[in-house]
Amino acid sequence: MTSSAESSDGDHDVELNVIAREQSSSASEADGGAAVTEEMSPLLTQAEKPKINIFTLSYPRRKPGEEVIRSFEPEISAASQFILWVWSGSRYSGLMCMAISSTIYFTMEVVTDVFSVQPIPLFEAAFTRCTVILVLSYMWLRKVGQPLSGLGNVKNLLISRAFMGYLSLMSFIFCIQRLSLSQAIVLSLTTPIIASVVARFILHETYKVAEVGGLACSFFGVLFIFLQLLTTQDQHDEGKNTSVSGSGHIYAILAGSLSSITGGISYCLIRAGANACDQPLLTVFSFSLLASPAAGICLFSFEKFVFPSFYSLSLMLVLGVLAFFAEVFLARGLQLEKTSKVANVLYMEAALSQLWVIGSARIAPTFGRIFGCLLILISVFCTMYIGPDKED
């Protein structure tokens, strides 16, 4: 008691200090409570806010073309990557390019079969196709900046390739005008075999037993397919007294043989020229540069020009564009791979054509046709499965 009385002022001070602390603590608690209340208030008042559903949300406005462009971007990139992989991104690129070329040639047959047009002379069709190839190849070479002059020794290879290719084309036109379609096709399908034989001497290529067996298997498949057609045509022509069975028939067979031989040499020159200039499109351009005006001269010299309708002209232009891509992939395949391997893949076109005719119910499926198609497809599949030769 005494100490408290003596220190009454001190007690008063202490009391004041205690009161200040209580006020400060109460103030801090009030501030903290207000903060907590403010933090909790959005949660507490959330039920009072208007409800939001899919009908009240505002979506960002986009132009109608943006979604379409974005949706096609992955497809375009995937297609471009596939083309790059086929062109030069794999050790199977040569075989894949030749398979695409054969598929395009088969597509041309389907388009010709489905869309019937007015009769067009063969020289006129060849002139239109070669002209389209000439224009497209020139535009492509200009776009990539490839010079067309100063090629040196490559120029001789390109000129020889153009001459042999044109001679093969003209001989085949002469042959198909005088022989039945099946006979002309069988003669033309000897071109891959002749190309493989010629490449042994011109390009000094060596062959394995599997490669020779693959070519033989594919050609036997061709014989199985067209054997019935050939025998039927011979029996049909026995009762006819026509001039085709005389010297004209022999000349037509010689023209077909010449077409196959020059076509085989042309394949070897394509491979040599494409490897020498490192641009397979130059071989396509050189051929069309000679074939287009020469076919035009033959058209106006030996046949009567038929003015095509708009529908026929459109179809001829489409076939010309397809022929251009087929020639480009063929040249690229010959540039990258051995002649015997890629030449065997060319027989795939004959098998696909027969399967299309059988599937469209235009001819009856016989054992010979089906067995021949299986032989060709098995041979081509084995060639693709074995792949190119391993580099040492």
TrEMBL record:
A Pfam cross-reference name: EamA
Key words, A-Z: Membrane, Transmembrane, Transmembrane helix
Membrane disposition: Multi-pass membrane protein
Ranges annotated as spanning the membrane: 92-108, 120-141, 162-179, 185-203, 210-230, 250-270, 282-302, 308-330, 367-387
Region (Disordered): 1-36
Compartment annotation: Membrane
Signal peptide: none
Family, per entry: Belongs to the drug/metabolite transporter (DMT) superfamily. Plant drug/metabolite exporter (P-DME) (TC 2.A.7.4) family.
Protein name (database record): Putative EamA domain-containing protein
Species in which this protein is naturally found: Rosa chinensis (China rose)
